[in-house]
Every structure is written in C-alpha cells, then in structure tokens.
Give the backbone structure.
Amino acid sequence: MLYGKNVVLGVTGCIAAYKACDIVSRLKKLGANVYVIMTDNACQFVAPLSFETLSNNAVVTDTFKRVDEFDVKHVSLAKKADLFLVAPATANVIGKFARGIADDMLSTTYMASKAPKVVCPAMNTNMYESEAVQQNIGILKDRGVTIIDSVEGRLACGDVGKGKMAEPIDIVRIVEEILQPVQDFKGKKVLVTSGATEEDIDGVRVITNHSSGKMGCAIARALADRGAEVTLVRGKMSVETPSSVYKEVKVTTTCQLLDAVKDNMDNDVFIMAAAPADYRVKNRSSQKIKADSIVLELEKNPDVAKYVGENKGDKTLVIFSAETENLIANASGKLQRKNADYVVANDVTKVGAGFYTDTNVATIISKSGYSVDSGLVSKDDLAHLILDTIAKQK
C-alpha cells in the first residue's frame, strides 16, 4: 500500500493521456496522494476535470495562474513529491528533461524535484526509434531516471511497432516497488507508542518529559513503508502523526496509554517508543496551586512495557532505554525485567542523540545476545535498522 505517499503525475499531449486516468485511479486505491500536472497539449486530449475528480486535487496547468493563496507551485509540488511520474511522456518532453529546458509547469517542476523520477515514453514508432529520442532516453537513464519502456502494438496513427505507453497496471506496479522496495512486514499488525505522557499537578501544571515523538513516528512511517498495518498510540508530540498509519489513538496520561495498549493486544509486534511519566500526582488539584504552597505526593504509574512483556505470549516486544550512564548494563537489565525481545539503548548525553534532534545514536540488543551499533544516523535510518534487526532475527 502507498498510504501517505505523494505522487506527482505529469501528463503530456498524447493519445495515451486517457490511460493516465487509470494510473491515477490505481494509485488512489493504493492510498497514494496524487497531484496532476498537465501540459497545454494534454488538455486537448483529456479535460483537467477528469483528473481532478479522480485525484481529489486541483490539476495544475498554468505556471502563471493567479491563486488565492500564494504558493509557488513548481517548487511546492517538487518538494511534496515522494515520486515524480510522467506518463505518457512525449518525445518533446523527454527532450526537455534531457537538455535542461524548463519552459512550462511540468518541466520546471520536474527540474526542481529531487524525488525519484519515472518516465513512460509514448509516441510514433519512427519517433521512438530516432537517434535523438534514443539519445535523450539514454541521458535520462544515466541520471538515474527509471524508464518504463514503450511496448509494441498498433499505434493511434495506424502503424504497428514499438511506441505504445506501457499498461497502467505495470506502471503502477513499478511505482509501488520504488516507493516500497522492502515489504518484509506485509501482513503484520504492529503497535507503536510514541511521545510523552502528561500527569496533571493542578489546573495549569503537568509532570512530563522531553520526548518529541520523532523516533516513534519514524518507526511508524518505516513500518508502513514496509507493508505493516500500524496502530500509533501517541501522547504529546512535537511532530505530526504520519499519514501512512492505519490507526491513531491519542492519550494523555500513562494510565490512558496502558488502557490503549490493552485494547490493541491483537497486534503481532509491539514497539514501545513512548516516554511514559513514571509517577503521577496523588493529591492533584483541579485549581492552580499557589507557588509557595506546592507539596506533591507522588504514586507510581503502571509499567506499560512490562505489562506487554507479561502478556504478549510469542509476540515480539521492542523497548527503548534512554540512559545517561552505564548504557549497556542498564539497558540489558531492562530487557530482562520487562521480558522484551529487543531493547534500543541510547545515551542521550551523546552529541546528535536525544529528544528533539533528527538524529540518534543507539545500540540494539536482542535477548539472544545479538547487538548492533547504529553510529550517528537519522532517526528514519535508525527506524529501518531496528526493523532490519527484527526481520533478520525472526
């Protein structure tokens, strides 16, 4: 599935433009967000309204069209794209891409995008086989562009030969393979906890911690990319929930976090990346307590990860251990006490590690004794390393 993935589809002036409607429909059924850019010539074959209806997004055609909200479209769409697909691609637009010509919305957006690019040629056989077109296709291949080659058949002009655009089902299959190259969690249901819980002190103050939720969201996103059905149980976070998760459950307190986990024990894997508050206030007040009279009596919160460890059976449990000293010893002890299968240990005092950074440094330890050090990596890369470790050990 492609939930949360953004595909920008360029449609050029060719009789095969009608097949691009099928491409949009198939991508939408897989959960992708599709944004269509049409050349002026493409609009002569298929009305923009058709693509707007299928994609549920406005179609972009005019580089200089005034809009109510200021938005440099060729830049915003270029940044938004997880993949840039051009289908059908005429000889003209292939030549523009190869030679760096950017004179309309499609070519300027293409040039501005750093996303993986897929180009699907469609044209008359003689045009396709011409030295110029073949040279231009070769240039694009050398730059890392995926070319979904034309197929043989009867063309609109009456000729028979190579030049027909590949079928939409094949194009979408390749797009899916590029966006989701590894599907080793397909068919798995995974619960991820993320963010910090909060415990009221009074009407305005809370006990909480510095967890940003970035690591948990990176794991949820990586799992969805690898085919899992992800339930994200989230507390307070500084980032948005990935749109690719199957289900989101919002909680505030540690007890609410435990209840949400209990309600979702039918998952196959549990990854406990949240940072629950260890204590709650026993004598909390609904009114603001005056600063000079605050005396707090605390009581222990339930241990959510330990509950999962005691009730998971043969399911997989991954826990996190944020430490400031004795990293391996403390993390290994937690692994045993909570009956976890893996612990991700990170020293939050290290440069590049910690709560609000986009990077992390961790050691992944399994109950079998296997361990791997990540070094300084992005949280997205660490998420995939965790999943790689689980997949190899299963």
Q: What stands out?
A: The chain has a mean pLDDT of 92.
